[in-house]
Design goal:
The structure holds two protein chains of two kinds. Chain A is an all-beta fold. Chain A contains no helices and eleven strands. Chain B is an all-beta fold. Chain B is about 0% helix and about 45% strand. Chain B contains no helices and eleven strands. The chains are: A mainly beta, B mainly beta. The interface of A and B includes residues 92, 103 and 107 of A.
Chain lengths: ~110, ~110
């Protein structure tokens, strides 16, 4: 299994600013992902964080809005840029270990944009 | 495109009653189906996957390709089963999970 921590756990931000969310895993993992869960909705994959190269974004998500870094096999960051109230969501980091098909999820970062 | 449908937002049952959480999917290829659960104030965690054909905490789910369903069942609900349940689909041997909107299960005494 993998233990995932995220910082911050929650934040309230002003419109137009940016927030960087950190994801730390207690072991090296092959795949890291970022999901978004908007109020009352399901989880949606934003992107796959690739170690040493640019992230792979899903349809509807772009690098300028959600830049992602993954400098090593245990850490990744997601930045929510130029925030608007529509960005108010829970952002979750998820990892897949090399051994199997299971994906583990972090506790999430609850973002409120005012 | 793939899609997962959970028709019930909320399901209330009495303790000891059978539970069935519905999940239907749409995907033209060979799917992998999962059930995730989120208890109050806890993170999302895997409950079971169709490949394993296992029973976890008394829950089972059978993949029915003809009906494109993966309903979650438990014969006797317990109070501690109260949680949010998400059905998820992984496609094409890739890594993307597509989630349903979730069903809040409430087990009443």
């Amino acid at each position: 299994s993998a233990v995932i921590s995220q910082k911050p756990s929650r934040d309230i931000c002003q419109r137009g600013t940016s927030l960087t969310i950190q994801c730390q895993v207690d072991s090296q993992v092959t795949m890291m992902f970022w999901y978004r869960q908007q109020p009352g909705q399901s989880l949606t994959l934003i992107a796959t964080a690739n170690q040493g190269s640019e992230a792979t974004y899903e349809s509807g998500f772009v690098i300028d809005k959600f830049p992602i870094s993954r400098p090593n096999l245990t850490f990744s960051t997601l930045t929510v840029s130029n925030m608007s109230p529509e960005d108010s969501s829970i952002y979750l980091c998820s990892v897949k270990t090399g051994g199997g098909n299971e994906q583990y999820f972090g506790p999430g970062t609850r973002l409120t944009v005012t | 495109a793939q899609r997962v449908t959970q028709p019930e937002k909320l399901l209330s049952v009495f303790k000891g009653a059978p539970v069935e959480l519905k999940c239907n999917y749409s995907y033209s290829g060979s799917p992998e189906l999962f059930w995730y659960v989120q208890y109050s104030r806890q993170r999302l965690q895997l409950l079971l996957r169709h490949i394993s054909r296992e029973s976890i905490k008394g829950f089972t789910a059978d993949l029915n390709k003809g009906e494109t369903s993966f309903h979650l069942k438990k014969p006797f609900a317990q109070e501690e089963d109260s949680a949010m349940y998400y059905c998820a689909l992984r496609t094409g041997g890739g890594n993307k999970l597509t989630f349903g909107t979730g069903t809040q299960l409430k087990v009443e005494l």
